[in-house]
Amino acid sequence: MAKRxxxxxxxxxxxxxxxxxxxxxxxxxxxxxxxxxxxxPQSAMGHAITINSTLYIEEMTxxxxxxxxxxxxxxxxxxxxxxxxxxxxxxxDICVSGINHGSNSSINVIYSGTMSAALExxxxxxxxxxxxxxxxxxxxxxxxxxxxxxxxxxxVLENGLNDGVVLNVNIPNKTASDIKGIKVCRQARANWKExxxxxxxxxxxxxxxxxxxxxxxxxGEDTDEWALEQxxxxxxxxxxxxxxxHAIKTLNTWDFNA
Amino acid sequence: MAKRxxxxxxxxxxxxxxxxxxxxxxxxxxxxxxxxxxxxPQSAMGHAITINSTLYIEEMTxxxxxxxxxxxxxxxxxxxxxxxxxxxxxxxDICVSGINHGSNSSINVIYSGTMSAALExxxxxxxxxxxxxxxxxxxxxxxxxxxxxxxxxxxVLENGLNDGVVLNVNIPNKTASDIKGIKVCRQARANWKExxxxxxxxxxxxxxxxxxxxxxxxxGEDTDEWALEQxxxxxxxxxxxxxxxHAIKTLNTWDFNA
Lengths: 258, 258
Description:
Two copies of one chain form a homodimer.
Chain A: E1 6-10, H1 18-27, E2 32-38, E3 57-59, E4 68-72, H2 76-87, E5 94-101, H3 108-111, H4 113-123, E6 128-133, H5 145-159, E7 165-171, E8 181-184, E9 190-200, E10 206-216, H6 224-229, E11 232-239, H7 245-251
Parallel strand pairs in A: 1-2, 1-5, 2-4, 5-6, 6-7, 8-11
Antiparallel strand pairs in A: 3-4, 7-11, 9-10
């Protein structure tokens, strides 16, 4: 490549998160890196954007390195929008988000701030990847992720992605030698069986904590859940055209003039 | 139907919103209504859920009527989760969300709190519909929406919906006589061309407001944008399996062992 690619890096765990730091270190090997990440954790923000309040950005140095870094007061989707429109002087060649502390496989993609940033880039026709490690802890070990992150990002830089397609990559919490490889998958049909933990505050008012158990209802051996259980890195191509095309025919048989 | 259906009603504009009030009045004609809606506006919340703070629910009476009403301190998705798990004594037969003050057509579905509530119900295998009116104002006139809302909800109660499919209904801001009918559509390929309005706060620090212009890049005559421009009510069946199945084959040709 004649010119080094411009790489936009973001996440939802906030600009100081170790997963983001790992992602920056890999991307510095591949191109010119600009980081625009939330100034505080934004997990489970879904695809929120900030329309009724103000946004601040602040250039800062968290780690040594060639990258430029900006903290933004908004959501992950805001970070991408403001990066593309106000910070970067040209369109990025790729946007990478993560590495998330915790899984964004199967239905978790819907709630994921990490993936919302990647989807936002995809909506802007920028090739984009969200990376997640199956370990929720702040002190998670990201070392074994670097090879996979690099390989997948290199492939996207080289091959591009179809317009409207974004990659959702999840990495097992195993050592590099335990991981069997990379599998392209579909999103498993799974959900959370919620349980609300009901408590009483000191003033006697009831309140709830949301907890839950993950249920994989999908027996397929082509899903991300299956691949991750078998110690593969999973890649699901995801799209933001939510149309359930298979349902259109049925709906057209309905009688709306009753 | 032997037993009146149980109808869960929610929205993202908050429990006092006129659009919700209209939706409740229509649903009271169709079944037993329980309202669980945010205690404050939650627009553009995407599919956010509350995992790091507490949730409160409060039974209240906003309007006279047979419905039961609860305000919840969380997001639209939280409202559905807590309704199903803590408030309702049986599974609802349908969940309706809205009527949103403003469009959720095409790419707006991604940012929509209204649709995130409907999708959350869909994830729980409850037939669900999100309704939106193409008028952002609080004082919007919802009168002409009632016939369409009722017809579509009756159809879903009678026919059900495929598992994994949720309806996204948008209604033109026209009089009933100007609306030509209902069209089943696909989501148009469109996006927002953002513009950030940069200002300086009284302390001299720069801040930004997110504004933007809506761009429909899709010339198809089978899209929701086309239908709405032609004065039809649009119904897009949407799904929360985001897999871009058409991209899997290409990705399987990539070399991940380079």
